[in-house]
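Hi C.,

You asked whether I'd gotten around to modeling the 200-residue construct. I have! Everything is below, sequence then structure, no commentary in between.
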Amino acid sequence: MQKSIPLEPGKYYHIYNRGNNRENIFFEERNYHYFLRLYAKYIEPVADTFAYCLMRNHFHVLVRIKQTFGVSETPKVLDSAIVLQHFSNFFNSYAKAINKAYHRSGALFQKKFGRIEVASNRYFLALIHYIHFNPQKHGFVDDFRTYPYSSYSAILSTRPTRLKRDEVLGWFGSLDRFASFHQAQTDDKLIQGWIAGEEE
């Protein structure tokens, strides 16, 4: 069973979730775009995003929880309960929209979303590779670099993005090192072991 760990301000987390009974959560292209719009509405106020990938029946994101939120002169100090409520509102809003659009009922996501603290440089770098490589790993594309619903191309691009692109590239050292790291083999067992441990 998924451990209910808090989401503490200032810390990095690997967030993931999948469809209830491993069913799809995205049914057509517009769903991916709507998911990202809701993500911007509910999650961006409380978390910075470094990488993401959306697939038919699951998704992965790498975030850092903000210390405060709000644009007033006295922004509100975040705590885990506030952050978790934002995630709950996000999932509920998306699920209600999908259920209405496709005349379905019941849970869209599995009950508890996965969250694992990213507490080392090694995990951070390996996780970004893992997130971006996921569509190729699951056979959605032959080359993960062509997959349209991940952050890989946005990080390589110079176009405006909500991602913390400069910080990501700073972790790798340069754009070239970011690209070359993605061509190298990484130890996915490291990531999968952490995920499996959280799902026991």
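If it helps when you're writing up: The chain has one domain: 12-199.

Thanks,
B.
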